[in-house]
Specification:
- It is a single chain.
- The protein is an alpha/beta fold and 348 residues long.
- Among the domains are: 35-84, no CATH class; 191-322, Rossmann fold (3-Layer(aba) Sandwich), CATH 3.40.50.1400.
- The protein has helices spanning 39-50, 60-84, 95-115, 132-141, 158-172, 191-204, 222-226, 231-246, 271-280, 298-314, 330-343; strands at residues 23-33, 119-128, 144-151, 180-183, 212-218, 253-258, 285-289, 319-322.
- Strands 2-1-3-4 form a four-stranded parallel beta sheet, sandwiched between helices. A four-stranded parallel beta sheet has the order 6-5-7-8, sandwiched between helices.
- Helix 5 (158-172) links the parallel strand 3 and strand 4.
- Helix 4 crosses helix 5 and helix 6 (191-204) packs antiparallel against helix 11.
- The two termini are 18 Å apart.
């Protein structure tokens, strides 16, 4: 992150406010993380997350009493226990925070090598810390008169990309000197991203391959698809492009959805049920990857590597491999940097 000492503009009167040297900001955004695993830290985080109408769109009068009086009295305990199993104890933070910071540093190095010190790179979270408003203000204070906002979601969904953009735009309403802005579109079919995914699979299976590669995506209510959200279709396209890049046959790479919440129908097939069905059908060796996540988090490290693994093994499966998210893998950093450079066109 660049630091700039504001100074009075040349030829300005002596009482003119100091102004930072103009630069361009690149602000990466991920979902979010609790500050700790204790009850109150988890409750604050879950309250912010589950109060977002983009995430849960039930009427407020119906949802908030249920959330505040029932869900948030119990769920912080179970969620905190799950986070404890994956917590980065050395840095006292969640893996998502650690990885996002590492991604940001790697991208900043590449952009500095390309554009010098005129581009400032930082990251924020939609929920929790570092908050989006605090990072937007920091960029404005540092002299960023143009900001490229990059939600780190390969696939667009109202509950991810859209709410991140919403928070970014809300933050802009607070400033008197509002910068020009752009947002990076989803990159679910970007060749560099598909290549990075394929490389991660090939590193895991250089000579052999599993009976089935399961591409497990975070789920959404089925209703969202019927109301026009493109997420479902974009996920299926990523799976198809990955399968074609690997050169594997149809049926050897499949699409499933995880992390169902509530009682209504969600996108199917559900990963936890599908892996059991595969085992029962005689598929003894499977691998699971999570193409919708740019960084490993609670849904991958705990849900996939524990709950979903257990479902497969309980049903008779013998070999379960979780292929980590792309994280700060060089091919992934190169793909993200290339997307940033395309979207900075005309600014640098």
């Amino acid at each position: 992150m660049l630091e700039t000492t504001p100074a009075r503009p040349d030829h300005a009167p002596a009482d003119h406010p100091a102004v930072a040297t103009e630069k361009i900001g690149v602000l990466l955004a991920n979902l979010g993380t609790p500050d700790a695993t204790d009850y109150w830290s988890m409750r604050r985080y879950l309250n912010e997350f589950l109060s977002d109408p983009r995430v849960v769109d039930y009427p407020r009068w119906l949802w908030q009493p249920l959330l505040q009086l029932v869900i948030l009295t119990k769920r912080p305990f179970s969620s905190g226990a799950a986070y404890k199993t994956i917590w980065n104890n050395e840095k006292n933070e969640s893996p998502l925070l650690t990885i996002t910071r590492d991604q940001t540093a790697a991208i900043a190095d590449k952009l500095e090598a390309r554009f010098g010190d005129g581009v400032m790179v930082d990251f924020c979270m939609r929920y929790g810390n570092p908050s989006t408003p605090s990072k937007v203000q920091a960029m404005i204070d540092a002299g960023c008169r143009r900001i490229l906002f990059f939600p780190l979601y390969p696939h667009y969904a109202g509950a991810t990309t859209a709410t991140a953009n919403d928070q970014f735009f809300r933050a802009l309403t607070e400033g008197r000197w509002q910068p020009a802005t752009r947002t990076v579109p989803p990159y679910y079919d970007d060749p560099d991203y598909i290549e990075a995914l394929a490389q991660s699979v090939e590193r895991t299976y250089p000579d052999t391959k599993p009976d089935v590669l399961v591409c497990s995506y975070h789920g959404l209510p089925q209703r969202y698809l019927m109301e026009g959200d493109p997420y479902h279709c974009q996920c299926h396209k990523t799976t198809r492009l990955l399968r074609e890049k690997l050169g594997w046959a149809e049926g050897e790479v499949i699409t499933t959805f995880q992390s169902r919440f509530g009682r209504e129908e969600w996108l199917q097939p559900y990963t936890v049920e599908e892996v059991a069905r595969l085992a029962e059908a005689g598929k003894k060796t499977i691998a699971v990857c999570a193409p919708a996540f740019s960084a490993d988090c609670i849904e991958t490290l705990e849900e996939i590597n524990e709950e979903i693994r257990h479902s497969f093994e309980e049903a008779g499966g013998e070999s379960f491999t979780y292929i980590p998210c792309l994280n700060d893998d060089p091919a992934h950093i190169a793909a993200l940097t290339a997307a940033i450079e395309r979207n900075l066109s005309g600014w640098v």
